[in-house]
Amino acid sequence: NDTVINTYRKQTGPYFGNRHNLAAGLRLKPDSVTNILFNVAFMDANGEDQRMTSIQTTNNKTGPLNTGDIDLKYDNQIYTYRHNISITKLSRIKKGRRFTLGHDMDYRNSETDNFSLSQNHFMYPVLFDSVIRQLRQERIPTTELNTYFNYNEPLTKTTILRLGARYEFLKYNNSIETYNFNTVSKSYDLFNLLLTNSLQRKNNQVTAN
To answer: In the chain, count of helices (H) and strands (E)?
Structure first.
C-alpha cells in the first residue's frame, strides 16, 4: 500500500489598519511668461495583522507525525513624502522659445515588526518539542530624486532645437534584525546574528540629450 501523509491546517486572525493622506498644490504666475507649479503629498499608514495557524500531520501507516501552533503578528508603519516643482519660462521676443527647470523627490519608509511564536510537538521518528519565539524587525527607507531642465529653440518654422539634461539619485536601504525572546528579562533582547542582514544601494545617473 502507498504511504499517504495528510496535513490539516487552520488559519484565523484579524487585521486592523488605517491611513492618513495630506496633499496640497500651488500654481503661481509671477509674470505673463513664467509659470511655477508646486505639489506636495504626505501619507502615514499603519496596520496590524495577526495570523494564528494550527497544523496537524498524520501518516496512514505510522499515525500522527506532529502538531503545531504558530502565532504571527505583524505591526507595519509606512511613511511617504513626495514633492515636485517645475518652472517654465517663455520668451517675450521669440515665439516657441521655452526653458523648463524641474525637481521631483520621493521618500518612503516602511517599518515592520514581526513577532512569531511557534510551538511544535513531533511524534515521529522521535518525540521532541520545539518552541521558537522571535522578533524580526525590517526597515526599508528609500529616497529618490531627480532634477532636470529642457530648452527649446526654434530655428525655422519647421525645425526646433531641443536641449536637455537630467540628474537622478537613488538611495535604498533594507535592514533586517532578529531578536530571540529572553525568558529572564521577558523581552526580545537576544540578538540573533545568523538571521540578521542588511542591503544598501546608491545610484547617481546623469543623462543629456
So the answer is: 0, 8
Write out the three cell numbers for 56: 496537524
Which of 51, 46, 48 lies closest to 16, judged by CA? 48
For residue 70, with 0-12 CB atoms within 10 Å meaning exposed, 13-18 middle and 19 or more buried, which class applies? middle
What number of CA atoms fall less than 13 Å from residue 82's CA on the CB side? Answer: 11
Enumerate residues 6+ apart whose C-beta is below 8 A from 4.
59, 60
Q: What is the pLDDT of residues 112-169, one digit of tens each?
A: 999 999 999 999 889 999 999 999 999 999 999 999 999 999 999 889 999 999 999 9
CA distance 167 to 148: 6
Residues 16/31, Cβ–Cβ less than 8 Å: no
User: Counting Cβ atoms within 10 Å, is residue 144 exposed (0-12), middle (13-18) or buried (19+)?
Assistant: middle
The residue whose grid cell reads 537622478 is 168
Q: For the whole prediction, is pTM greater than 0.85?
A: no
